[in-house]
Amino acid sequence: MDLLLYNLLTRFYFLAIRLWAFFDEKARLWVQGRQGIFEKLKQDIPSRRPGEKLVWMHCASLGEFEQGRTVIEALKRERPGVRVLLTFFSPSGFEIRKNYPLADWVFYLPADTKANARRFIGIVQPDLVVFVKYEFWYHFLRVLKSRKIPVILIAAAFREGQPFFRWYGRIHRQMLACFTTIFVQNEKSERLLAGMTDTPVQIAGDPRVDRVLEIAQQPGDFPLIEKFCNGRPVLVCGSTWPADEDVIFEWLRSEASAGWKIILAPHDVQSAHIQQIVSKSSSPVIRFSEAENLAAESFRTSKLLLIDNVGMLARLYRFGRVAYVGGGFGVAIHNTLEPIAFGIPVIFGPRHGKFEEAGFLIKNGGGFSINNATDFIKIMQSLEEPVFYTKSSTRAGEFIRENRGATGKILTFVLKQL
Asked: Cα–Cα distance between 189 and 65 in angstroms, integer?
């Protein structure tokens, strides 16, 4: 009965995406990317030479890829001859990373049916499979287990409200049993799984920590950004949504923002949203795509630099005195690890419960959750006090220092399996 319900729900979900594709570009990419996928797999993945190993890593989207990429990169350094297949569920990951150079092949994951799972795994024939964080697809996991192919889950984070811990979650608990080992981010996840599954569970941490440390150590050269900042205190706002931008612009219009400059990198960089941001601003805006041709006076008088592209944000936090991470007034906050890798305090909206690092930051004074613009203005004013700022900045970097090394722990296990 549980499996019947799972099949009905997943098939309804996949059908809904196909119907939505008539109206939505992201859904259309999801459908188009899976057309003819098995023929492409047969064509692109040739028979392997004797002894050649293939590791398949699956990520839901871009955020999960950032958790898994350090493992791919470390593996390629240790074993350059290992082939890597990278798959995504969402266009948000595939479309941005489809040309990722360290993956030999990048594909969408077919819909989770028994037939698809058997056919996909039969073509790929992986030696080891790595699922990242929240990816649980019953038929793929069952086929992997039946064929005795090692499969690990990395960067896993479990919470009481998930189906694994509910009366109706039997099929999810069955999926846990399909993994060879589960690498969790923290002790809480380990405790929740105790007695829930016989699958070995290890605390490894979050590989994203290693990734953001790499970025912080190689921040890149941005002369136009330096020209804009010009020695002034800078608020770097990353992955913002309209609700976040309303809060930021209310602060910008207040006297509390005097002397500050803002670097704003929105989550959505489509022209309509970029124009919406420009119209909201009460002061001149520089669009990064147009900055190279602007006179020096524009850099001096403008308070807001708008990053109208994707890919720069993680390295821009080094210019900040304070960071604001968006998403907390919507589904959930985005990546707070990127700014704290540079040791700067971070502010975010109220929806942060899924992220251990956000709770750590709030508890230790390196990060601050707000509910509205008034909260934001008060926190920004507090951070102008030198002693308060120094304490907050020091605490912001503690999570990074205490949680590095997940990649090495996972890699040791992967190499043993190969």
From this structure: 21
Q: Taking the domains of the chain in order of start, what are their residue ranges?
A: 18-35+47-205, 222-397
State the pTM of this model.
0.84
Cα dihedral across residues 383, 324, 373, 226: positive or negative: positive
What is the identity of the amino acid at 238? G
Per-residue pLDDT tens listing for the chain (418 residues): 688 889 899 999 999 999 999 999 999 999 999 999 999 999 988 777 788 999 999 999 988 999 999 999 999 999 999 999 999 999 989 999 999 999 999 999 999 999 999 999 999 999 999 999 988 999 999 999 999 999 999 999 998 889 999 988 899 999 999 999 999 998 999 999 998 899 999 999 999 999 999 888 886 789 999 999 999 999 999 999 999 999 999 999 999 999 999 999 999 988 889 999 988 887 788 899 888 888 877 888 889 999 998 889 999 999 999 999 999 999 899 999 999 999 999 999 999 988 888 999 999 999 999 999 999 999 999 999 999 999 999 999 898 888 899 999 999 999 999 9
Same fold? 18-35+47-205, 222-397: yes
What's the CATH class of domain 18-35+47-205? alpha beta
Name the nearest CA neighbour of 72 among 179, 183, 184, 210: 210
218 phi, psi to nearest 5 deg: -130, 70
Cα–Cα distance, 18 to 185 (Å, whole number): 34
Q: List the beta bridge partners of residue 156.
A: 184
Q: Which residues contact 315 (CB under 8 A, 6 or more apart)?
A: 215, 219, 220, 222
The domain 222-397 is placed in CATH, from the list 3.40.50.2000, 3.40.50.300, 3.60.9.10, 3.40.30.10, at 3.40.50.2000
